[in-house]
Amino acid sequence: MSLSKHASPSGTDHAVLIVGAGPTGMMLAGELALAGIDVAIVERRTSQELAGSRAGGLHARTLEVLDQRGIAERFLAEGQVAQVAGFGSARLDISDFPTRHPYGLGLWQKHIERILAGWIEELGVPVHRGREVTGFAQDEAGAELRLSDGGALRAAYLVGCDGGRSVIRKTAGIDFPGWEATTSSLIAQVEMTEQPPLGIHRTAAGIHSFGRLEYEIRGGEVVYKDAGPIGVMVPELPGRTEPPILRDLSAALVAVCGTDYGVHSPTWISRFTDATRQAATYRERRVLLAGDAAHVHSPVGGQGLNLGVQDAVNLGWKLAQVIKRQSPDALLDTYHAERHPVAARVLRTTMAQVALQRTDDRTEALRGIVVELLGMEEPRKRFGAMMSGLDIRYDLGQGHPLLGRRMPDLDLLTPSGPMRAYTLLHTARPVLLNFGKPGSLRADGWKGRVGCVDATCAGRWELPALGTVSAPTAVLVRPDGHVAWVGEGTDTGLNEALTTWCGSPD
User: Fold this and answer.
1) Partners of residue 184 on adjacent β-strands
2) CA distance 197 to 311
3) Which UniProt keywords apply (predicted)?
């Protein structure tokens, strides 16, 4: 499904260039393509195929985001549904949360990327592969990417989705303050002559694990297949920066396990640490950052990939409206204002979880208390909502509890028949839902930009960790699924909200 594209500004190759074809970059490209923006991705890898397993799944809010675009089933068809939200050693059951996806999804990053690549191909997004970026220059009209082959590409806007060592962030001169690493681990996909003990193990040296890449989840437990490559995670002394090789992995295994289990034939070997950093700003004029280019942290809790995908969904529609000159340039500043605090909280929670992983007796005592506390109802709901991403609220001012939060995916009865609320977001356009007298609320000045739907809904308005809230008479839902305005019997503030989030009226 190739969409008609908004013309690129004069003197540019594309309206937007995205550096990096990981999950964040591809999600952003899809968002822009849905809005009809001429977007392309520049990627140094020659193939979409990703070596190894990398990140292991999707949290509930990310599944909702994908559902908002009508593609969640593509991921659910290939993954393993499970309760994956957790904090430290505590597993957080969210099966009773008010969402159509009260669970997480076990699915390796290489599969997530493959599915996203298929989606953006349907949307007609070009990917310039095998093109390594060496830097860029920007002016008042756009930015020009410099490539290692001597070529260049120009766009009105440039988005760095190129990871923690982001060339885009460094070239833009954006500070990346934070905390140095205190832990380091090697992660690899290998063959082993001897059978290691599968599962997660805690020793005085730290946490290490072995698992086959093919698995099933039965009764909440991981059951590994009998054959195939083995994924390994093993701690090492922090401070090393050179790329790890098989000899390093063997030495780390011997130090922790007393044997390397005959490790051989690595598909890939990498390193991760608990270095924790966040870009001082997500925007420098025509250049923006998303995903790991904007924030890095320990992978504990499985937040990174999910955080990046949600960055993309917050940024995409805003960038599209600015490019179309429907909204002022200042709308892009709300991207940093909304997403920076979300990532800052993730950085704090991952640092706390790393501290809980220490293996001394005092930390063991603390870990037991935390597990006991999170077994209680209110803490379980609060932390479950936080770790699953279902409690995110953007500061859009005071008012109804829905304001700034995710729109629940309610069953609606509309003039077109019954449908889910998220079905109305498949085209990535704002929606004004009117639950009062039919035709009593309109957005005539935004015709073609805002969908206006009269509806009734059955069921309660519930929010994770907050419970039931009073039913509104209308809501304005942004393309990212967050509520921008709540009607409580009047249309007070509606035109202001429409102008703020949907641009000036025609």
Assistant:
1) 236, 273
2) 38
3) FAD, Flavoprotein, Monooxygenase, Oxidoreductase
